[in-house]
Design brief:
This protein has helices spanning 44-47, 56-68, 80-92, 105-122, 143-148, 152-155, 182-199, 225-236, 257-260, 288-292, 314-329, 332-351, 386-396, 418-439, and strands spanning 23-27, 30-33, 38-41, 98-102, 130-134, 166-168, 203-209, 212-213, 219-220, 239-243, 267-270, 282-286, 356-362, 365-373, 378-379, 399-400, 403-404, 407-410. With 440 residues, it is α/β, with parallel strands linked by helices.
Length: 440
Amino acid sequence: MNSKSFVWHPYTQMRDWADFDIITKGKGMWLIDSKGNKLLDGVASMWCNVWGHSKRELVNTMIKQAKRLQHSSLFNLTNDQAELLAEKLVNFSPGMEKVFYSDSGSTAMEISAKIALQYWQNIGIKNKTTFVSLQNGYHGDTVGAMSLGYVPLFFSKFKKLLFPVIRVPVPDKYRMQKQFTFAQYQEFCLEKIERVFAKSNDIAAFVMESGAQIAGGVIIYPQNFQKKVSQLCRKHGVLLILDEIATGFGRLGSFIEYQSQSSVPDIVCYGKMLTGGYLPLATTLATQKIYESFLGPYEDMKQFFHGHTFTGNPLACATAITNLDLYKRNHLISKIQKKTKQFEKRIEEIMDLTLVGDVRHKGMLMAIELVSNKDKKTPISSDKKIHQKIFVEAKKHKIYLRTLGHIVMIVPPLAISKRELDFLLDGTIETIKKVTKDLN
């Protein structure tokens, strides 16, 4: 641990690290440190980078907006960039009509929960206060978000802070119970959800990541699972909150993931790639029906009691507008759908590696689960410090990787070239091979 640094790093055992590479520059898909070493950004700077670093159009927008208006509050005022971006997001998002701004995925999810609870209060149904979510879902690190998406490895130490949530199983093909076929297990999970809905009249909302669980281990939903959950919510009068913070805007191959899943949310959250990964911004979108429940005489106190200092920051909103325009101008989604085949071609090769138990992939996302026993599917134990070994070895191959425990994540910037994606996949495979030799 570097005693000269004052920075406390996230999700990091500081005692294990003598120092950290100091990144001073980014160019294209590459991060450049203070010594001039280059690393290919294999995790899109925590899953948010779209175009690579120092994208000219985004930087120019930031400079132009910073000269004009850096920040102005949305308390009793508005700004042109927040208005323009909200209109654009509503036009992109089927069924959504209003946009509430915040600054991170966690805050967007906190807002979604508060909107859902207050909605039922506003329309006079006071007993609907319970949330249901999928086991091992992840929705952020603040108290409400941890409650909604409880990953035991991350959050068990904070359990006494959290509000109770009913958790139902997720169709995890790799770790499903042995007595089921996968089709049977999907039905089992859906039946569990319906039983919970049928026996309770106090459920405010069902909360799930859209398309796949990511931070909880990359569990990609089977076709029609999310659609059927959406249908169950409609049938039983339960609001559906979808978290597209990490899965939307192309990460799984679709611009609006819930649209590709044929599901209809009442509330949806965006973040991460919204500004191309250049500035912190997140949004919570709601239907007209939800929004109208917050309207009434002032003395009825139906207004939404939530707000942040940097809500609707014009600098971030302007950057997001340019970013979203670039998607269309560069036909990014169609390019992603072609690049996904590069991942697919390497799955068999990766599965043959000694430590690899499973490979899960969709769009521009791949998870490689490392196990000590393939037959028993035993995760590599934390005392092996596999996360650190992977990171250190990957650097030797000029790539930046960060694992989720024993799961190697490949989450590159969406606009990565074919050549650079091959470089990343080659380096990841060589990294796993070398770490395997060291462990043996």
